[in-house]
Design goal:
Helix content: under 10%
CATH superfamily: Porin
CATH class: Mainly Beta
Mean pLDDT: 79
Number of strands: 17
Radius of gyration: 20 Å
Low-confidence stretches: 1-17
CATH topology: Porin
Order of helices and strands: EEEEEEHEEEEEEEEEEE
CATH architecture: Beta Barrel
Length: 288
């Protein structure tokens, strides 16, 4: 993998090795009559850092049955599943939304209510623990964040919506405030199109900082080959900037469990003194 970024001081562009997707994981399940217990642990490995320690990306246990799925631990958030949806390793989503992809200390429920799919997360950091973004004390009660997501599919059209409510205060969890968004997608066989919008009302103390983001995604699948294009943009009120991200990718399925992917992306941060960056790479993945 490589990365190339312009220098604000007028120096030559830098090209270096990066690793933003390597990981190793283990999972298992066991049936107990009408219920199934399951667990997973996934470690992230950065091959570009010498003596880098593997960090836990995902790690949870749970049980599933006719009632749905109940799990506890570090896991993908309801927001990411229904609205966020990280598509590339490199584009950083153009900073189009500030919802978390993964959360630790999470109790999750996923199931159905009639024709609606539903998912709810309770993120429990604990009073006095450091905020994962600011490093400040959370200054909150036991429950730091609640997420609720709903989805409905009819024909080839899927409509999803999600809400995040964070505990506020002077050092509120990830700034406190609310984050809400929606995504509509259309699946026409080999072609899938989607449009997503998100609004983040972070409350740092007495101030409210709003960020509105938009994401467009298109994919085309033919046989073992997949093509992807993603465009993201945001209007950041606090920073007075509008970052833009563009990414294209190609994936070839070598087998049901093995695949290789090529990606190229560019992010323009729209911040004084910072140039746009270009990143790309090759990824091979095999699932056991």
């Amino acid at each position: 993998m490589f990365t190339e970024s312009g220098s604000s001081a007028g120096d030559s562009d830098d090209i270096g090795f990066v690793d933003q997707g390597s990981r190793v994981g283990f999972q298992g399940n066991q049936s107990f009559g009408e219920f199934t217990g399951f667990g997973l642990i996934e470690l992230g490995v950065d091959a570009s850092e010498q003596n880098a320690d593997a960090g836990v990306r995902l790690g949870y246990v749970g049980v599933s049955g006719n009632f749905g799925i109940l799990s506890v631990g570090s896991q993908w958030s309801a927001w990411d599943t229904y609205v966020g949806g990280s598509d590339t390793n490199f584009v950083s989503e153009g900073n189009w939304q500030n919802g978390t992809g993964r959360n630790g200390n999470t109790v999750k429920y996923a199931g159905r209510i009639g024709q609606l799919s539903v998912e709810a997360d309770a993120v429990i950091v604990g009073k006095g623990d450091a905020d994962p973004i600011t490093g400040d004390a959370a200054n909150s009660g036991l429950l730091d964040e609640m997420q609720l997501a709903l989805g409905y599919t009819a024909g080839g059209i899927t409509v999803n919506a999600a809400l995040i409510e964070r505990d506020g205060g002077t050092n509120g969890y990830q700034g406190g405030g609310s984050l809400y968004g929606a995504r509509i997608s259309y699946d026409a066989g080999p072609v899938t199109l989607s449009f997503a919008v998100a609004q983040d009302d972070a409350q740092f103390g007495d101030n409210t900082e709003e960020t509105t983001g938009i994401k467009l995604r298109a994919s085309y699948v033919t046989g073992a080959n997949s093509f992807l294009a993603v465009v993201t943009t945001a209007d950041n009120e606090a920073a007075a900037n509008q970052p833009l991200g563009v990414a294209v990718g190609y994936q070839h399925d070598l087998s049901q469990r093995s695949r290789v992917a090529l990606e190229l992306s560019s992010v323009d941060p729209d911040i004084a003194g910072l140039d746009s960056s270009i990143e790309g790479g090759v990824m091979y993945r095999h699932d056991w």
